[in-house]
Amino acid sequence: MKIGLFVCDCGKNISGTINTKQIIEYFSEFSDIKVLGDPYLCSESGLNKIIEQVTDKNLERIIIAACSFKLHGQLFRKTIEKAGINRFLISFANIREQNSWVHPDEPEKATIKAIDQIKMAIEHVKLLEPLDVEYSNVRPSTLIIGGGIAGIKAALVIADAGYEVSLVERKATIGGHMALFDKTFPTLDCSICILGPLMTEVKDHPNINLLTNSTVEKVDGYIGNFEITIKKNPTFIKEDVCVGCFDVCRE
């Protein structure tokens, strides 16, 4: 298995603390590792070097020793894909955020740590297998747990955007703690004066399914296709009839 190791200086963000030249020399002794350093690996010239090395040396796995995956991970994945390698056959050694930035006063120890990080990435990348990206239909509906002011506002914003919302509240009514307050900061308006119209709007909104006296029992599935089991406890009233207590139930 031919592995390509690409070490980034990131200007002085990495090389100002970590001795990247020492790292390149160290891993150059590994027979199955091809090493290349670059001042800015995420630049256009740096990305082109990766493609050239993959093509010229028939590399099968890639290790990026640079910044975090969160910052440029997708960029490097797309780059190796252009070179003909499955985008998931890549491992990252974060030697910037997790090393040089936290050890600026200990360059020797930081360099040793970087070598260890890359060694772990090497063992990790050897275990990776190619994966295919698949697309599936998703149901763009939302479950909101908790009918306090935050849940109410979130439900209304999403519902007004045209999406279905299920708002689950374990108590008999929505409103949460705010419904118990006298006044709200900074205007000192009465809480129910603000909350009441929003509660009514939630109840009457065509895109909101309001489930009071209910709890989430189970969550299955995955992002985009969750399956939720909700337990609705009995209220012992007919909710479609009980809309005006003193008028409907007058003795």
Q: What attributes does this structure have?
A:
251 residues, alpha/beta, Rossmann fold, FAD/NAD(P)-binding domain, 2 domains, 3-stranded parallel beta sheet, 11 strands, elongated
Q: How would you describe what is shown here?
A:
By secondary structure, the chain is of the alpha/beta class. It folds into 2 domains: 3-127, Rossmann fold, CATH 3.40.50; 142-242, FAD/NAD(P)-binding domain (3-Layer(bba) Sandwich), CATH 3.50.50. The protein is 37% helix and 22% strand. The strands form 4 sheets. Strands 2-1-3-4 form a 4-stranded parallel β-sheet, with helices on both faces. Strands 5-6-9 form a 3-stranded parallel β-sheet, covered by helices on one side. Strands 7-8 form a two-stranded antiparallel sheet. Helix 1 (20-27) links the parallel strand 1 and strand 2. The longest helix is centred in the middle third of the chain and has 21 residues, at 107-127. The protein is elongated and about 90 Å long.
Output the radius of gyration: 28 Å
How are strands sequenced across the largest beta sheet? 2-1-3-4
Number of strands: 11
**Which range does the strand content fall in?**
15-25%
Secondary structure topology:
Layout (H helix, E strand, L loop, with lengths): L2 E6 L11 H8 L5 E6 L5 H14 L3 E6 L2 H14 L7 E5 L1 H5 L6 H21 L14 E4 L3 H12 L4 E4 L14 E2 L4 E2 H14 L3 E4 L2 E9 L2 E8 L12 H4 L3
Parallel strand pairs: 1-2, 1-3, 3-4, 5-6, 6-9
Antiparallel strand pairs: 7-8, 10-11
Helix pairs in contact: 2-3, 6-7
